[in-house]
Amino acid sequence: MSETEAIAKGDSPLDLSLSAAELDARREHITDFIADQLDAAGVDRAVLGLSGGVDSSLVAHLAVEAIGAENLHGLVMPSSVNDEATMSDAERVAMELGIEYDVIEINPIVDTFLDAYPEAEGEKMAVGNVRVRARAVLNYLVANTENALVLGTGNRTESLTGYFTKYGDGAVDCHPIANLYKQQVRQLARHVGVPQEIAERTPTAGMWVDQTDEGELGVEYDTLDSILALAIEGEVGTSATARIVGVDREIVERVRDLFEQSGHKRSMPPAPAKL
């Protein structure tokens, strides 16, 4: 029985956690995946943006296991909206794992875009997306220079809700933790040795001051994971999902809308059919 089938049958509607054996299996599966991706591309190195959050910290730990710290180049890319403690933790992760890393301020890059198109000044979402896309460009600048792959940090919850920037943090060569719900990311992070304070930190995409994932999504991650598992991947009805999870029907409908409206982010850009 799949995990979504088990959830849909009501065995454990709010618990998507993995057993110790499952955590070990996921760990091995992901490290093998990373190594296989590099082998398939004929390269030895990878580049990873380090934010100080749980997703990038987990990918860093797993990548070091897969290809060795000497073959991973970390980029810490702070801007004026980032919390200093988070950026310090990004460097801390790199140093503890023995990863070569560079710190590159992205404010001058973002400012150059706004100088070129000042009409965007004050448009929070537009400018926030420029910050994310600037980091993607830098990831690929380093990767192309070093003949390396760019590792992504997107998880299953973000993918299903479209909570990522198109051609920003979604612009990578592979997503090692894309099959993990957010609560499973936290669990595996603790399992592989990511510091507790990083594993439990309030997630933020670093798009503007005081921005948080859960604040923007309008629902906490554990609840969101359960709704996605039931209503989107488990195909449980809206009313039943709301009853099982213990939320208003409107919350489930909002999550359905997020999934449906973000389909374009999970697909290649459309083109006309062949004549």
UniProtKB/TrEMBL annotation:
Full protein name: NH(3)-dependent NAD(+) synthetase
EC number: 6.3.1.5
Keyword Lipid biosynthesis attributed: no
Gene giving rise to this polypeptide: nadE
Subunit structure: Homodimer.
One GO biological process term: NAD+ biosynthetic process
Record: residues binding Mg(2+): D55, E158
One GO cellular component term noted in the UniProt record for this chain: cytoplasm
Pfam annotation, one family: NAD_synthase
Recorded superkingdom: Archaea
Organism whose genome encodes this protein: Halorhabdus utahensis (strain DSM 12940 / JCM 11049 / AX-2)
EC supergroup of this enzyme: ligase
Task performed by this protein: Catalyzes the ATP-dependent amidation of deamido-NAD to form NAD. Uses ammonia as a nitrogen source.
Lineage: Archaea, Methanobacteriati, Methanobacteriota, Stenosarchaea group, Halobacteria
SUPFAM superfamilies: Adenine nucleotide alpha hydrolases-like (SSF52402)
Entry-linked Gene3D superfamilies: HUPs (3.40.50.620)
Catalytically driven reaction(s): deamido-NAD(+) + NH4(+) + ATP = AMP + diphosphate + NAD(+) + H(+)
